[in-house]
Amino acid sequence: MTQPVTSPTTAPTNAEAAPFLEARNIVKKFPVRGGVLNRVTAHVHAVSDVSFSINKGETLGIVGESGCGKSTLGKMIIRLLEPTGGSIYVEGQDITRLGHHDMMPIRRRMQIIFQDPYSSLNPRLTVRQLLKEAIAFHGIVSKDGMEDYIDELIATVGMRPEAKDKFPHEFSGGQRQRLGIARALALKPEFIVADEPVSALDVSIQAQVLNLMMDLKERLGLTMMFISHDLKVVEHFCDRVLVMYLGKVVETLPCDRLRTDAQHPYTRALLGANPIDDPDDRRPLTVLTGDVPSPLNPPPGCAFASRCPEVKDRCRELIPVLERKSAGHPLACWARE
Questions:
Q1: Which of 58, 204, 238, 275 has the greatest CB tally within 10 Å of its CB?
Q2: Is 297 left (phi over 0), alpha (psi -120 to 50) or beta?
Q3: pLDDT, tens digit, 9 for 90 and up, residues 44-88
Q4: pTM here?
Q5: Given strand 39-54, what is the order of strands in its sheet?
């Protein structure tokens, strides 16, 4: 009988208290081209000066509306996208300046679960071929142990052994996402970016996939970045939450203090927009008015000023700094001085 899939262990060091991953002043701008000569005419400001850290074994939630830059941030962290500026450190090593060859050992330690299970699996390959491709490339197990390891991975995500001989189109959305999780686990990673892993699934299936991921996180000792637009899911799944708006971090705090201590008007609006569990609670849902500013031309002050119910003159002129306020956690808001 094969042993359960386990993450690689590392020898303890004197720097155990240091974060596993740290992002410093990450920036991503996408060029916009136009004209006869196809020159760069503008830039989309997708992520602007974002800094955070994730401790070993922690799950950090990244939350915000569509287009706020959270998926772009997740892809930069594992260098599927290259940052325009800033640095990313994994256990103290700056990986933003590593070449392709030097990045290979890091890529084995960092994997991603994509949002759309329908487009993230190659339709021309069976499940066996999908898993075998990555396992063989990185030399995870010997050739003789390949079949047993693939069976083990499929069982780990709650699927039957015969699934390995089928093609992706033969599975439901929830089953495909389980296979996406199996592919991410195939390299025995330490860190996983989960990019809205349940948003494309039926509500009845979301809880099953989330429970599977929580079980795997605890069993394998994984460190995770969990990206979502749903604060209720993040509150349930994560240890800390980082709230983004138009490419910037506006607030970050522990998930168990989210409902009681969240201070930023945008975070409060997201909380107020969630459906209320108690059918006897008749409070109206929060509906933000106004449009999100264009990332092609960000406003000079706070990006949320045009929609904020507590806006001040200062908010329209100066960009607020993310710093600890009286609430005791990092917050970027002039209205909470």
A1: 238
A2: beta
A3: 999 999 999 999 999 999 999 888 999 999 999 999 999 999 999
A4: 0.89
A5: 39-54, 21-34, 85-90, 93-94
Rounded average pLDDT over 270-275: 79
* Six-digit token string for 324: 């600890």
Q: What are the φ/ψ torsions at residue 106 (nearest 5 degrees)?
A: -70, -40
Across the chain, how many H-helices and E-strands are there? Answer: 9, 12
Angle between helices 173-185 and 203-220 (to 10 degrees): 20
Residue 5: pLDDT band with limits 50, 70, 90: very low
CA distance to 4, 16, 37, 72, 84, per residue, from 41 (Å):
53, 46, 11, 21, 17
Nearest to residue 185, comparing CAs of 4, 2, 54? 4
Q: At 161, which amino acid appears?
A: P
Please state the rounded mean pLDDT for residues 168-176: 93
Locate tokens 């287009």: which residue? 67
Residue pair 22/9 in contact by the 8 Å Cβ criterion: no
**φ/ψ of residue 220, rounded to 5:** -100, -5
